[in-house]
Design goal:
- This protein is α/β, with parallel strands linked by helices.
- The chain folds into two domains: 1-290, Rossmann fold; 365-497.
- It is built from 18 helices and 19 strands.
- It has an eleven-stranded mixed beta sheet.
- Helix 13 runs parallel beside helix 14.
Length: 498
């Protein structure tokens, strides 16, 4: 065992003790973050516009600062991009993280010298918590791969611009550089399919022990590895592979397929990074959910999903949240985001300490008939039904079909790509409908009341979803397919494409 591996144990225990200290005093920790953010931003343009000098407590803040999405802050961000200082946060950001936008095209999320350490350290700490709890350190000496976007930055403007994973790649600690793959040249390949081919070429002869990325793209990497080798599983290629780190999407719908590809069950760590901040990570292999990072330069607010679209929804801080309720997550950060709706919904599974699961996207739901089906319900249903029937699902998307024909009731259409296209879907479809009725009472009432007919499945040919994502320029990296929608835009585009 190397010196680095042996030193990781005391360091892991040190970090874990620090975490326990702030996690044991959650409300006080968040109050300190809140006061620090307000104090530092008083003289910014946003602070002046919103009376930060008169804000002493959270109730004052709620009166002065509205809930914003990117469009609400875009005017300030445009001034930052033009080179203006002290707009949302003192000085200017050190990076702008470019993400896909909706109504305003690309979004440019500020990353400051104060916020970047939390992006780096949180990823590190998730691994250290795993070491502290399990004592497993063998993977530290092996090769590690972080499947991510290109680290190339656009430096044509006042502030370097890049994708979050590419920005973070510039800050990987030196002690990880020797073990880390792929090479910089390969990492800079923009075409995702060519990049995965090149990564396979670099890694297929290595002893990979830790692999990290978004599950659908890791699955694509694994499938190409097996295709290029004479092996049947990843275990045969990487015999020491023991730790999978993932984020971005719910792993459960992929777990069955992934474990078959790997050939065994490996430990995993779920993380919740975003351009807006590193929000949570799985701190225990024994407990459900991810630890909400309360000491990372982010003051959190929450709005119940059921109230979010009301004219004046109730905003609350951490002390007022309850178990098993879905909340829209609102961020205030040391990168200058204020009252910012990140678009995600979360549910608390523990209050001591505060642990969450990501339950979906506030814009990604299906409620064409008042059922308000959310991502957590459809992902849970697919996962359970797949396990019970043994039918592997590669990818799926749910959309409402409002007008099938004059004589038929509307229904939920599930577009599903199967590992085995010849699988019998009759029992799968029936069980899926049953589970959806079990998980969502509104859906059950609509079925029982003859307002909807049972769901219908449309099978998508192999590679159909990847083809769709490629057509949108969103193949690979941090891009994720929306699992459900309240309209048929994606569904109709997909069906037309294939």
């Amino acid at each position: 065992m190397s010196l680095k591996a042996n030193l990781s144990i005391p360091f892991a225990n040190f970090i874990r003790r620090k975490t326990i200290k702030w996690a044991s005093n959650p409300i006080q920790t968040q109050e300190k973050v809140f006061q620090s953010l307000i104090k530092k931003a008083k003289r910014t343009q946003f602070g002046k516009d919103h009376g930060f000098d008169k804000i002493n407590e959270y109730d004052d803040f709620k009166k002065n600062v509205p809930i914003n999405d990117y469009e609400g802050l875009k005017g300030y961000v445009d001034r930052i991009r033009a080179g203006e200082k002290n707009v949302l946060w003192p000085g200017i950001p050190i990076y702008l993280s470019k993400t896909s936008g909706t109504t305003s095209g690309a979004k440019y999320i500020p990353i400051t010298k104060e916020s970047i350490p939390f992006h780096i350290n949180a990823a590190r700490d998730s691994i250290l918590h795993y070491i502290a709890e399990t004592g497993k350190i063998e993977f530290v000496d092996g090769k590690m791969i972080f499947l991510q976007g290109s680290p190339e930055l656009d430096k044509s403007g006042m502030i370097p611009v890049g994708r979050l994973s590419g920005i973070v790649a510039h800050h990987v600690p030196n002690y990880l550089q020797k073990n880390r793959l792929p090479s910089l040249t390969t990492n800079c390949i923009n075409d995702w399919e060519k990049k995965v081919d090149a990564i396979c070429g670099e890694t297929i002869k290595e002893e990979m022990t830790l692999i990290s990325g978004i599950p659908p793209w890791i699955q694509m990497y694994f499938e190409k590895l097996i295709e290029k080798s004479d092996k049947k599983t990843i275990q045969e290629i990487f015999s020491s592979f023991s730790l999978f780190i993932y984020g971005g999407v719910n792993y459960e719908p992929y777990r069955q397929t992934m474990e078959k590809l790997i050939g065994k069950r490996v430990d995993s760590i779920e993380v919740y990074p975003a351009s807006e901040g590193f929000i949570a990570f799985q701190d225990s292999q024994k407990e459900e959910g991810m630890l909400l990072l309360l000491n990372s330069g982010i003051f959190y607010e929450f709005i119940e999903v059921d109230e979010f679209f009301n004219e004046n929804p109730r905003r609350m801080s951490l002390k007022d949240v309850e178990l098993d309720k879905n909340y829209v997550l609102i961020l205030n950060t040391n990168a200058g985001l204020w009252g910012y709706n990140i678009g995600d919904t979360v549910r608390f599974v523990s209050l001591k300490p505060y642990r969450i699961v990501v339950s979906g996207r506030i814009k990604h739901f299906t409620s064409a008939f008042g059922e308000h089906v959310i991502a957590e319900e459809v992902e849970r249903a697919i996962s359970v039904v797949s396990q019970e029937t043994g039918i592997e699902v590669v990818e799926f998307h749910l959309a409402p079909q409002l007008h099938p024909n004059e004589e038929s009731l509307p229904f939920h259409e599930w577009m599903i790509e199967l590992k085995d296209p010849t699988a019998d879907l009759e029992s799968f479809s029936s069980l899926l409908n049953q589970k959806m009725m079990e998980y969502n009472t509104y859906y059950k009432d609509l079925i029982d009341g003859k307002m909807l007919q049972d769901l219908k499945i449309t099978t998508i040919p192999k590679g159909g979803f990847q083809k769709y994502m490629k057509s949108k320029g969103k193949l690979g990296g941090q891009n994720k397919l929306p699992r459900l929608a309240n309209d048929r835009k994606l569904a109709d585009e997909l069906l037309e494409l294939i």
